[in-house]
Amino acid sequence: MAKRKKSKPANLPIEVDMVSDFVCPWCWLGYKQFLQAADKTKPRPNLAFRPYMLDATVPEEGADYREYMKAKFGDTPDNRFNAMKEHLIAAGPDAGIAFDFKAITRRPNTLNAHRLMRWAQGQDLGLDCAEHLFRAYMENGEDIGNTDILCRIASDIGMDADLVRDLLSGDKDKVDIQNEILFFRGLGVTGVPFFIYSGQMAVQGAQPPEAHRKALTEAATLEPQNLQQN
User: Fold this and answer.
1) What is the pLDDT of residues 15-71, one digit of tens each?
2) How many domains are contained in the chain?
3) Cβ neighbours of residue 134 under 8 Å, at least 6 residues apart?
4) How far, in Å, CA of 165 to CA of 142, rounded?
5) Does residue 134 surpass a pLDDT of 80?
6) Fewer Cβ in 10 A, N or C end of the chain?
7) For the domain that residue 27 is a member of, what is the CATH number?
8) ∠ at Cα 176 (174, 182), nearest 5°?
9) What confidence tens digit (pLDDT) does each residue in 58-77 have?
């Protein structure tokens, strides 16, 4: 993503878009690492969550987690995901995360979780919603594709759970979410987390806070550019 060297207006917070999926453990780790940098930045940057689905072919009702992971990575002790799990479990505590992969029994379809996030952000509840979604899945092993669980999360963060249930029963914002995913794929996003600073520069993957502090410092010198979506 090309950088456009224009001065950023003084005292305006940096706009950051985080493209992520709520079943991605690297996304939660990356989010927490971003927060460690953002919490020490003044003014604090504005973070917007943008949708991505690691696997849009997962059925709406979800899939058995172990069977899904076996089909994706194999069932040998040295498969790639087992090695990643060890790294994540070791890195989690420094970020305030207690990953519990043994608790996960379902691999959800995350379209409805992204819809909930869209509505939460409309009420300035995006950070709370993300924390609850990530924690529900990664620490508690809850099925965040399940309507009851999504409605409980909505209630816990101060949303109208009955309204959320009504919305989830229909198709509101499904197409918009899917189009937004296609938009970011069109920008070249093929893996998450993917952080876009001021619409111009990116940090990809779960990077240490130092990487985000460096990006925030550089983004502070750039004039923000809006991400254009169809």
Assistant:
1) 999 999 999 999 999 999 999 999 999 999 999 999 999 999 999 999 999 999 999
2) 1
3) 22, 27, 28, 31
4) 18
5) yes
6) C
7) 3.40.30.10
8) 105
9) 999 999 999 999 999 988 87
